[in-house]
Amino acid sequence: MNILKEASMEANKARKSAGKPRHGTIFHNRQSSRAKYRKRLKEKQIYSTEVYTNYLHEALLQKKTTAFWQCWRSKFESANKCSHVEGCADPDIVANKFAMNFRRLFPVMTLTKLMSSVTENLVRRIDSRVEWSTESKAELRSSKASAAT
């Protein structure tokens, strides 16, 4: 792995010193070195995934619960847990700050405001599509007014 990385770095330095050509043997050497190194990186990632997956599977099959959970925690649990938000560590204060910020970003509409805006939009849509008699319009508007109160 280190050999491939060094070869890739050397080929890159050689290309830079040659004025960064985009074709020729120097360019081809750099590209092939990079490709080999990247391929090896991907293989290593796949292998590490297979290894701990197999280890988890074996530990589970053999009922080695301690070994299973140790492997699980090492692979899936993050050590970087957020413990401070804006300088506060108390969960209640953090929750209140989140709630205040959420309220500021998304103002709360009361139910009556929401219902009246929905009814107004509905009346506008109906008015634009259907010819209403003045009695029907007045009836719908009065039902809207009673819903708002």
Residue ranges: pLDDT <50 for 5 or more in a row? Answer: none
> Biggest β-sheet: count, sense, barrel?
none
The overall pLDDT average reads: 76
Order of SSEs: HHHHHH
The count of DSSP E runs of length 2 or more, i.e. the number of strands, is 0
| Proportion of strand residues | under 5%
**Terminal Cα separation, in Å?**
74 Å
* Count of DSSP H/I helices: 6
> How large is the radius of gyration?
33 Å
Q: What sort of overall outline do the alpha carbons produce when their principal axes are compared?
A: elongated
How many structural domains in the coordinates?
2
Could you estimate the helical fraction of the residues in percent?
Answer: over 70%
Keywords:
mainly alpha, elongated, 149 residues, single chain, 2 domains
What does this structure look like?
This protein has helices spanning 2-17, 25-61, 65-76, 91-105, 111-129, 134-148. With 149 residues, it is mainly alpha-helical. The chain has two domains: 2-76, no CATH class; 107-148. Helix 1 (2-17) runs antiparallel to helix 2, helix 2 (25-61) packs antiparallel against helix 3 and helix 5 (111-129) runs antiparallel to helix 6.
